[in-house]
Each structure stands twice: as structure tokens, then as C-alpha cells.
């Protein structure tokens, strides 16, 4: 088990290094290959009004004339050890992990990411709780009442949930529940949980449900299929032959086995979501990571995009690592050695 | 009789599947599925290969047909060494060497008609037929007792026994010389088993076939075989002609196996003296040293734990690998020249 | 009345293709300390029968009728909850494939403890001690250690022993074993059969063994029921079935199997055709399309279902041929061929 964890941790770290190289390549190297001169790169930092001399100086100071490997090394050193930037107007300290400065706001990227994480976490965790509970229970009920009106209705709804894009369901629900009925917050606001839990939940309720609807649909279908399969297994027959109550047969023996594939899917989905519920945050104008990324992309603001990609990738890798370990706990046949 | 003509000869054949472990995927051991076995198959005979799960009998079947490549040893088919022959060079030989599988359900492609399944070997091997492939296929269907008019039906339209007949028809298409049948009847109902066993025997007489029948069912193997080899944990422990093996088995394991088969006679259960082996077959990953049977053998002594008994001919055509064989002509063992 | 008395049991399943009569008017009984063997091929309805006795078809799609009396109590009309309370306690079952029949995620001990605690209000510690005790009794070495193993860590024979330990954990008075040794190796099969016979003697339970293997049946049964197409075609003592069988299907089964206790025959004597699918059981005598004597029934073979009639001392046969005709056939045509072998 321990060797397995060590091996997976090493693997995860190597994976992140590769991701960082690829992203660095895409954002800093490819433009230079494509003809962007060090000066063009530097001009983004100083604005278009600067004199060519200033631009050249900044390019030199930021190291755009250095070989790619040196530039990458400097970037990674920033991430792990922090960096110093010298714009000519004094040296600025950028403590680790340093992802550089936003071209637009001039602010360091990392504190901004940290500021926005609670919003995305709140959104993702809340939605995940809702969609797992709703999706799994609807799936189980559908499987147990296969072919019934409930089954057909819920599977029809699930199909809609999977196929409707989130900005569509998001907009519709905003129009109906916020502007029309006035039951939920109109979006755009975020109150930290530590300040006012009730308001926190009130503001996030609609985004949660919208996001959960999309995922719950898939989970309901997957749970239903898994339950139909496991409830036909021989060990279910054994459990019944022991005289176990049907509810326990379903929950302890059926659902336990049907949930393993769902666990895998959940790890991937949740990791991706932490990495940025981009569409939901944009639709409801929530100040989370996804929204930050969208703004940065729109402005060709490379350092924040770069920082965002690395943070998101880290979450995905960590989530899948945790899921793999949980898998061994759930299914003893999976030997972690 | 052409019985003495050698068709297949296997010498010291081994198949080890590596087992890896740890950070660097070091090889820490090997599943010794087949661990040095030798046997001959003569033209026109049926050799039965029996043993319990994990004894390597199915692996043996896949090795001699070269669906797997042996780790060591030698497989000679019709005088040609095929042990490490490339798939390309093997292809013409595949016509002469066919395999029948246990599961008639999964070994037939459900989306192909019977005609396509049985006719496939003709197309793959590019064989010219006198009156076209269809006629040839229908002839074979009739030969195995299927209605030739069912040429265009799909496997799911047939019962289990009929599907096994389709499987047999497919192997017969190119008039093979050797057929390896791996548990050909064990998935079938009792009354159907008998039909298929009879069919295999009829086809052997009619087409001059040679069989290697791999099975766990000792009664079926006795019925169908001329000679029988008993395997235990990757080794052959006893080979003899059918009569000798079943009437005067020498290896304790063979004795125990025969004694364990339930006999359909209520009186016998009270009378028969039975040998009961303790425990299950050990794992082939870590087989016991020396004689592999010593952990379950009631005759085992110190020598069985330290010295591996060689497979020796103790009576004419009767080979045994045991330090303390039963029913053995004692004199013969002491002085082999005496026979 | 026997300890278990099944009368005219019918288990029918409505499907899109029509009514599947898996069990169609079956009657049998078993006493405590006795063993009934139910023999049949695939689709004969033998496994459906066992699940039916356990009440596992209750509340499902199946249509049940008839009577199942267990120790003076009728189970078909009883509530599903009441039968559930008997299941595992008064009657228990062992299945064919011990690997797929145990939950892969729970330890063997957990599954035995669960079975025990459904019917006994005891603490986990007490139940665990009982589970270890049961594992020891079915011959599992080091039960105190193996109790925490998972099913996949056991060998095939050990798993079936654990299944038996689980089934016997509440001292059931009726034990049904559905193909208990089919998935096992020969030497292990012999161990398990011995174990079941020993435990039955110890617990004095009624035992039903369902199998396709006539050898297994001969070794353990007092009475034998031969099923074909959802019906009983022959019922009698083990001696009746093996020494004086009167139904052509039973003859066919005996002729189909190669035997180790006799010199091998030139040829086996199979039954022609295949077992019928239960969705489409032939009219009249279900066996008539495969029966070599179907012409001897004055045209009744495919129109009338023969009665299950007593020939002698509890030996029942469902056949249109007269008793003398069957006896003559057995003595002159069948027995000599089977025995010269």
C-alpha cells in the first residue's frame, strides 16, 4: 500500500511537471516560434505606449532573450522559490508560489487565485453533495421500479439534463426563479461562509442546483445501470436467502457494489469542477476561478491563464489520486502493491 | 495399424508466466503453468489429458497449437519443429491442427451466419473447393448432424449442443490431422454430452482424425481416449493406455482422482473404499518442491520432499512419476531388464 | 405429512413471449435427516423450484400456486415478511458458484456474522465467535485468522465450505443445495459431499440436493425426483431410480453418462434432440419428441399429458406406456445394454 502511494505520488508530480512544460510551451514558447519577438512579448508588460528602448530593456530584464530552457527554469523557480521582478522602478518581491503578474491589473497572480478559490470550492462542494444524493437515489429508485412511470419520467428528465447546456438551464432558471418568482438570489453576489452561512447558501443555491442538474442526470443513469446489474448478481440472491430485509439487501449489498464505478467518475468530475466551473460562474457572474480564467483569456493575459491551468491540473491529479486510493478501500480485490 | 506413426511430439515443454511486483516491476516469480512435460501423440489415436484446475492442461493445449509460445522445450508436429515458428510460417500448418473450445456460446461470432462461420477457414486459407464453398460447408454441416438448410441461420438460433456441433464443423472444414479439444462437452447437458462424444468418435473413424482431448471429467476421458495422461501442477504424473490407467493406476494422485468420482450406483457408496485428499491444489505460483503432490499424499516420505521423482516407464507403455507407486510390478522397478 | 411437503407447486412467469411454466404442478416431501435429490437438465425447472420453496419468488413477477408446508406451516399463503424470517433460520440454501455467491467487498466473517445476526439478537463479538466456530466446523484451518479473509483470498473448496458455514450458522432444519459441487474440482467435490452428509447427520436436517450429476445424487440421496420440462417425470427411492427406472428419460440419462464403475462401452446411448425451452414445452408428454417409444402410446404422446402414477411402493412415473410394458422394456432392452458395458 505504502509503495503504491509513493509510486502514485511520484507519478502525479511527474505528470504536473509535464503539464507545466506543455502550458509554458503553449503560452511563452509557441508565440516566439510563431514570430513574436522578445520585444513583442515584453510590450504586453509595459503597454503599447512605451518607447522601443523601454520595451527592449524590459524584455532583457524579464529574460525573453534567454534560451527557452532558462526561461522555463526561471518560471519553475518562481513557482517553488519565489522570484524578484525588476521593472526599472524598483524591485518587486513575488513570494512562492509565484506565477508572475497579470498584464492587465499588475497584480500578482497567486493571491488572486487564492482569493477566488473559496468561491469555486463552495460552488463545487455544494453542487457535488446535491448531485450525488439526488443522482444516486433517483438511480436506485429507477432501477428498483424498472419500467414504472417514475423510472420513465426520471430517465427522461435525466436525458434532458445530460443534453441541455448549462448556460441554457442556467439562464432559464435565473429568469424563472430569480427574476420571475424572486425565490433565489439573482447571482453575482458571494458572501463567505464564515461571514454569514445563510446568505452564503442563499446566493449559491441556484448555481448549485443548475450545476447539480447537469451532473445528477449522468449519475442517475449510471447508478440505475449499475444497480440493475448488481441486483442480478448471485450474491444478492445469497443475501436474500439469508433472510436479510430487502432494504438492507439493496443498500448494503446492491448499492455498495454499484457505487464503485460512480466513485471513479466522481473523482474526475469533482477535480475538473474545482479546476473551474467556468460556465456556471460566468452565467451567474460568481467571482470564482473559472470567471478569472475567462477574463484573463479574453484579455490575452498570459500569467493568470498559466497559473489557472496549473492550479486546475493539480486539483484534477489530486482528485484522481484520492479516488484510486478510496477504490482500494471500497473494493478489497484491488490490490495496491 | 498406423498407430506407431508419430504425429505430435512434445519434449520438456515449459510455459512460465512472469509475475512482477514493486516500484520497478521486478519479476519476483513465475506461474509455472506448464513445467517440463513430454508426451507423444500417434496418428489415429486419442490422447486424454486430465487434471484439476491449475494443472496446466489448457495451457498445454494452447502451447501445442502455438496459440502460446513455449518458454522452453520443443514441440514437433509432423517432423517440423514449431516451437518458435513465426505466425506467418505457422499459418499453413494451422490447417492441419485445429482446436475445439469449451464454451459453444462465446466462441462463435453472434453476428455471422453458420455458413460464414464454417466457411471462414476456406476463405482465410484460400482453399479451392470443387462445388463452391457453400456446398462444402453444407456437406460438413450434414457430417456433424446439423441440417444443411440452416446455412443462413445465426448461432443464437441453435441450442447449446448444436452450437458445439457448429464449433466442431468449423474445425473440420479444412480436414485437419490433429484436433485439440479443450473441455469439449463440459458446458453441455448430460444427454447432449453423450451426443457430442459419439459425434467426435464417429468423425474420428470416418476422417481418420487424431485427438488430444483435454478434460476434467475422468469418465468422459476414459470413454473417448486410447491413452491418458494425468497432470498435476504443471507436470505429467502418469501416462498409460486407458485400460491400465483406470484399472491399475500407479500414481497415488490418479488413485485419489478415480476414487473421488461419484459413481451412479447407490450401493457403491457404501461399499467403495475411498481415498480422500485433504485440501485444495496448491498454487502454481509457489508449487511444493520435489514431488509436487507430497503435500496431499498419504504415502509421502522424506524423499518425496527432497527428490523429484522422474517420469519412468514401470510397465510397458505405463509411465509414472512417483517414488512409491501403487500396483507396480516390484521386480520391474528394481530391475527394468526383467520385463 | 413430511417435514417439508410441497403439493402441486406451480411457478409461472408471464413474459412478452407468453407464459413460462418453469414449475408446473410439482409435489414432493422430505423428512428430517433424509436427503432428496432433484435431477434435471438445464431448463427443467429444478433451480426455480428451490428458490420457490425459499419464498424468493414472492412479490416478484412470478405467479405462484399450490402449497408448501414446512413443519406444519403453509408458506405460499404466508406473508412475504414471515417467510423472510424463516429464510436463513429454518431453511437455508447453498449455491453453485461460491465465488459469485459471496459478496466480494465483505470478509467471509462479516457475511457469516450478518447471516447470524439477522435471526439472533446478539452482539457482534458473540456473532464473531460463532462465525469462527462455524468455520472450524466446516473444516477451515485457522478459522480465527481466516474469518477476516475476503472470498477472493479463499480457494474454491474453502469458499464452498464458508458458504456451508454461512448456511448452517442458524441451525436450519431444511437445507437446499443447488449444484453445490459443480464448480469444484473432483477431489474437492468429494470432500464437500462428505462434509454435507456429515453435517446433515449432526444437525439432523432435511437436505435437498439439486444437480445434473447422477453420480452425486446416487452418493447422497434417499429419494430422487427426476424433472423434465417443469414437471416431475419420475420419483422414487434411490434404488427405484437406479435399479428399476421406468421412465424413458431416466433411461436416457443413465445411458448418456460414461461410468467409471464399469468397463467402458463402445458407444454412449444419448437422448436425441435437446431439452425443451420452458417457453415452448411440447404438448402432451413434454418428452415425446425425444422419446424412442413415443409411437407406443396410441397417439396420446402429443395430445395428453400423462399422469404421475404410482407403480409400486411410492415409486411414481409419468408415462403413457403401461407399467408392464415399461418393466418389460427395462428388463429386456435397456438394462442388458447398460450393464454389458
Summarize the structure.
Chain A is mainly α and 337 residues long. Chain A has helices at residues 2-33, 38-46, 52-62, 68-81, 109-144, 149-163, 166-180, 197-230, 234-241, 246-274, 278-283, 289-298, 302-330; strands spanning 83-86, 91-94.
Essential attributes:
heterotrimer, B: 339 residues, alpha/beta, Rossmann fold, 2 domains, eight-stranded mixed beta sheet, four-stranded antiparallel beta sheet, 12 helices, disordered C terminus, C: 341 residues, 12 strands, 23% strand, transport (chain C), P-loop_NTPase (chain C), Oligopep_ABC_C (chain C)
Main beta sheet of chain A: 2 strands, antiparallel
- At the first level of CATH, the class of the largest domain in chain B is Alpha Beta
Class based on secondary structure composition and strand pairing of chain B:
alpha/beta
So, CATH architecture of the largest domain in chain B? 3-Layer(aba) Sandwich
Poorly predicted runs of chain B: 331-339
The helix content of chain A is over 70%
Sheet-strand content of chain A, in percent, reads under 5%
| Low-pLDDT ranges of chain A | none
Number of distinct beta strands of chain B = 12
Q: Taking all residues together, what is the mean pLDDT of chain B? A: 87
Number of helices of chain A: 13
Estimated radius of gyration of chain B: 21 Å
CATH superfamily membership of the largest domain in chain A? MetI-like
CATH topology of the largest domain in chain A: MetI-like fold
- Beta-strand content of chain B: 15-25%
- N-to-C terminal Cα separation of chain A, in Å? 6 Å
Annotation, overall tally of beta strands of chain A: 2
Domain ABC transporter (chain C): 4-254
Membrane topology (chain C): Peripheral membrane protein
Keywords (chain C): ATP-binding, Cell membrane, Membrane, Nucleotide-binding, Transport
GO biological process, one term (chain C): peptide transport
